[in-house]
């Protein structure tokens, strides 16, 4: 810390945003590559091409930085992607998302850090998972109304099952699975619940 | 036990076994507490009360040590626990297992390390998970034969669903959930598959 007061940041605003983007991007990359416990502010600074002091001036600690990195990426592919007219579209979206190795690895990192950095999974759920869950529930409810799911299914439980199916897929299937294969996996799961879908 | 009845200890074989037990126990504790990447041979030696050289004489590296620690604990509660006369007994067993915070944390550590130490989850599956999967499949098949599961259910897929349900529970529920609550969770899941069980 220099101790000098913050200089008036008139001309630097855009540059400052670029620095933010670089830092958050580097943090997210390192989280995905190495996991939260193996990521340090030092490494983030190095990869972003800034000094540690620059990082610390913006983010009080590693956890706060990683939380913002997670939130920033999930603000990007946000609202529009989270509405599906029907189950088929929902499955297509999941299949696309889960056939991207980077997404898979990020989810594994968040769940893998749940004992040491529970804030990260919470940030993901708050910024993205929660809205996704609402959209999923709406899609499942419409499917049940349209007779594609048996009337007596408990949608909250079905949703928990599907979340579990995602986790199982992340751990038991290779990251090289294509979207078709991922889609087939979820189709098979939904059929066990009595879902009529092809 | 006093040890007086035992023949005098020949040159160190039994003591050597004690050292093994201490090292493997310390390794497992650290894996559960801190995770694989935050565990070092140094820490294991310290906790087991031996030198690093003693550890390295028995285990070439950290991964090999952690693998043996996982295998050793799963050889303990082995064959007898892995046969269930029916679904109810299987659920009881799962509920007991998954209401123990130490088991939950260990499973999370294995899945959480899947990108950096895939050998650990593999060791768990080879030493325990594989046999458990066989026992589960047999139990599900009998349940279907007895009409408790619809005939057209794909048991392999149901099994994947249940594995996913375990993972979801590990991440979404508190480690303080009692066995009854865990059992209720799996009951609800099984009912969505059309399982007749109370």
TrEMBL record, chains A, B:
Span of domain HTH tetR-type: 17-77
Organism placement in taxonomy: Bacteria, Bacillati, Actinomycetota, Actinomycetes, Streptosporangiales
DNA-binding feature ranges: 40-59
Pfam families, alphabetized: TetR_C_11, TetR_N
Keywords: DNA-binding, Transcription, Transcription regulation
InterPro entries: Homeodomain-like_sf, HTH-type_TetR-like_transc_reg, HTH_TetR, Tet_transcr_reg_TetR-rel_C_sf, TetR_C
Name of the featured protein: TetR/AcrR family transcriptional regulator
